Amino acid sequence: MKRQAAALSAAALLVPLSACGGSAEAGSGSTVTVTVGYQSRTINTVTAGTLLRSLGYFEKRLNSLHDGHTYKVDWQDYATGAPITAQMTAGKIDIGSMGDFPLLLNAARGTQLGRPTRLVSVTGYNLRGGLNTVVTAPGSKLTALKDLKGKKVSTSIGSAADGTLVRALRRAGIDPDKGISKLNQQPAVGASALSGGSVDALSQFVAWPGLLTYQGKAKALYDGAQLNLPTFHGVTAREDFTDQHPAVLGAFLEAQAQATDYLNRHPVTAAEKVAEETDLPAEVVYLYNGAHGIATFDPAVKPQLVSALKQDVSVLKAAKLTGDIDVDSFVDDQYVKKALGSSYARRLAASPAPAASEAWAKGSEKTVSFKDPKQLLAYVAGHRNGLRAAYVPDATTGTLWFADKAVWVTDGGRLLPFVAPATARAYVSAHGGARTISYDEAVEQAS
């Protein structure tokens, strides 16, 4: 097997460079094509994909290299990380972005085929795991994860969302292999299956849970942040490409940092740009990528994320999707450190901004923030017809959610939102006098 893999690897190196992702060894004055694989609708990768592409920062950085080459960027859009990995290990994609579990499969596949890849930066992350959510149909009688026992659940096996489902089921005392009927489906297929009633629940990554909830086609059953385990998306690059073209990767990471700063400084405009490119509602994009969104964007490779990646390996091994993975060898932050320079240490130490309630008025290029959900609801009461969206953080996990889709609890004079019914019930059980109320009742009480 090892000799066969070596032969395959050697054969791959004989492929003409024009057929590869980057024409790595082209002579001076030639055109070098850099192929970037991204997922436009996986919106926590936008600083290395959709937003970066729309801003043109990478192309501008390449044009400023002045090394005798003319550069062309070939952006290739995919629905998930798996095909990006396949193309990378075939030498046809140079740089790609994907979620944490696909990143590990990328590492394993690259090593197996003798074309190793490296994790070189991070895009969007959530330190509690709030980027993945389990949802059910709006009229479903399921109210807690334990209700999934014996039910049909759609997910994408090998994805971060599948990892969340597996861990959450284990905590609920359900065998993820035998306790449910798991369907391995692409996100769009799973969304259709949920709407059509052929599955009972859907476990997916951004932006699918928020999109379906916003559209009234789903409601949250489980907030991934209840696991309190980091989840993130990152950028991976072929080792042979980075060895041959460190300046090109450096230009990409500098451009990614520039796009990150743009998103953080202009969150509403950035959400509108991503919405225009993906046909996702801007209100959904903002839920994840906004000023207080579920995701925090920073290219720095934080130790907490590397630690979480190591914990993820056991989940993939248990599912027989991979063997051991040397995460320390896979992570290579030397290029992003160089790209970010003196700001790297500051970014590495930075913490996500505290969650806050926000209202987005129609026609406005800015949102309005509030100290607590009750103040937001009072604002909603006076602006019902003038709002695009209102967002509130879960009272226990901090996960941002649509105010009108949250589960509301009144406790004395406080109004507390929750993403999922189970967390709301847990709060009510622990606080005498607290009770759940409807969204309309919460707005009325706040006004």
UniProtKB/TrEMBL annotation:
Record-linked Pfam families: NMT1 (PF09084)
Alphabetical list of InterPro entries matching this protein: SsuA/THI5 (IPR015168)
Keywords for this protein: Signal
Signal peptide: 1-21
Coiled coil (residue ranges): none
Gene3D superfamilies the UniProt entry points to: Periplasmic binding protein-like II
Domain named SsuA/THI5-like: residues: 82-270
Protein name: Nitrate ABC transporter, periplasmic protein
Organism (species): Streptomyces lucensis JCM 4490
Lineage: Bacteria, Bacillati, Actinomycetota, Actinomycetes, Kitasatosporales
